Structure formats: structure tokens, C-alpha cells
Inverse folding.
């Protein structure tokens, strides 16, 4: 890991992605992950960083819109997984959104796909994104690639990301992500935020 230059907190957003009970249940040490992420959210909020929650949830029309050609989501087209309006689709209560936070709902892997996230970030003049999410090989990978292509400065909170496959997580963090993002853990977040 490196020590990146500080960001302007007022032009930075922390994206907390797919921190929903059924998704958390897929990874080891979910309680510790929630604790670290809660700390990161508190530090970011105290520095005036925009907090953005990204969640996945499906309404009936969302299930109907999944084509059979979508290998990753076609098996969900029959419904019953993260149904919109159910408690399982909510952000975990330990890190629940607060007034002023942004919440977007997606129906695919990436935070930008099927959401108005880009417009919301532009409205807040955001140019730097800090990513925390589950899973590393899903929402984090997809969002990183999309956001880097949109020319955001990218930072990944390595200890606030997890994957059901630890080896995949390790390879992405060590071999893939450094080409597009600065990688830090939560202990380095205060210095990144200029504190």
C-alpha cells in the first residue's frame, strides 16, 4: 500500500456498496468488516465527505427486465432475492444512512449501472471516490473500472472490501486494482482526509 496525496474532502465521496445482510453473510468476519466500515463512515462524515450507499434490490419490473443472456443475473430473474421493500434489501442497520447521505439502488453489479449515481456525484462536484464494498470481484471491480473510465480519482479501502473467495480478493488487491486506484486501509484514512 502507498501513502497517496490527501483529497479535498468536500469533493470526495465514500461509496459503501452492497452492505446488505444477505451479502454480508457471504463473507468471513462480517462483524469486523462492519466495525471497520462504520469507523470509516464516521471519519469521512466528520471530514465533510459525501457518504453514498449503493444497494442492490429488485422490483417486479426489474426481474422482468433481466434478459436470459445476462449470465450473472438471469438466475435471479425468477425473483426472491433482495426484493425491493424487504428488510434483506436494506443497508445493514449498524451503518444505516443518515440525513444528507445519498442512497442509490442498482439492479446490476456496478454502482453506476442502472442508477443516476453519476448525475448525483456531478451535482455535488465530486472528483474523488473512496470505495468500500462486498464483493471485491463484483461491485468493487465493476465500479472501479467504470469510475476510472469516468476520470474519478480512485481510492480503495482494502479492509472495508471483502469477497467470498479470499484468493480472488487478494489477487485483485495486489495485482489488478493498483493500476487504477490508490489502496489504503482504514488506519490511513485520516491522513488521506487531511486530518
Amino acid at each position: 500500500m502507498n501513502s497517496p496525496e490527501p483529497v479535498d474532502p468536500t469533493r470526495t465521496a465514500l461509496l459503501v456498496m452492497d452492505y446488505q445482510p444477505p451479502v454480508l453473510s457471504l463473507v468471513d468476519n462480517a462483524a469486523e468488516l462492519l466495525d471497520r466500515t462504520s469507523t470509516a463512515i464516521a471519519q469521512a462524515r466528520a471530514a465533510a465527505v459525501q457518504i453514498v450507499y449503493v444497494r442492490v434490490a429488485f422490483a417486479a419490473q426489474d426481474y422482468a427486465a433481466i434478459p436470459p443472456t445476462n449470465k450473472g443475473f438471469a438466475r435471479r430473474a425468477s425473483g426472491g432475492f433482495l426484493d425491493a421493500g424487504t428488510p434483506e434489501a436494506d443497508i445493514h442497520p449498524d451503518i444505516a444512512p443518515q440525513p444528507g447521505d445519498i442512497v442509490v439502488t442498482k439492479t446490476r453489479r456496478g454502482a453506476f449501472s442502472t442508477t443516476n449515481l453519476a448525475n448525483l456525484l456531478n451535482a455535488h462536484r465530486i472528483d474523488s471516490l473512496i470505495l468500500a464494498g462486498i464483493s471485491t470481484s463484483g461491485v468493487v471491480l465493476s465500479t472501479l473500472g467504470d469510475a476510472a473510465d469516468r476520470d474519478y480519482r480512485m481510492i480503495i479501502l482494502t479492509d472495508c472490501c471483502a469477497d467470498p473467495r479470499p484468493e480472488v480478493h487478494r489477487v485483485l488487491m495486489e495485482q489488478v486494482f493498483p493500476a487504477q486506484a490508490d489502496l489504503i486501509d482504514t488506519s490511513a484514512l485520516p491522513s488521506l482526509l487531511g486530518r
